Amino acid sequence: MKRIIAFVIAAIMCVSVFAGCGGGGSDLNKVMSDINSTYSLNLKTLESKDDLSKYYSIKPESVKQFAAEIDSNNNAPVEIIMVEATDADAAAEVEKALATRYNSIVSQYASYTPEKLDMVKNCKVTKDGNFVSLIVADNAAEILQKYQDSIK
Length: 152
Fold this sequence. Notes:
alpha+beta; 51% helix; 20% strand
């Protein structure tokens, strides 16, 4: 009986080793978790596609997966939005919506927090295939690199 249990456990372990090798792309929630652990961010998580629609006017049906966190408690928003769109057309729509938000953030910084305007001007919206991001944070270049490495 012990041998059977040991065999079953060994088989389960072998299967679990290969579970992550499906080539299905990047898990954006894991990427966000890695970013949070590296940069100790304390942001509000957007939980649903409806939140993306509410905050960014992104159609829920355009989103395959996403991870998004924001901090709008002050006049200098910090936002990390990573979206995998359903197709190229949806990615273009998401890019346009995030670009609109980025321009709004630039205006906010210019009006309320001009001392950090250079930081936000170094941030940007990126699109790589169906993956689109908006990262506005002090370490935006490093966060963007971590994100881009994860979607390759």
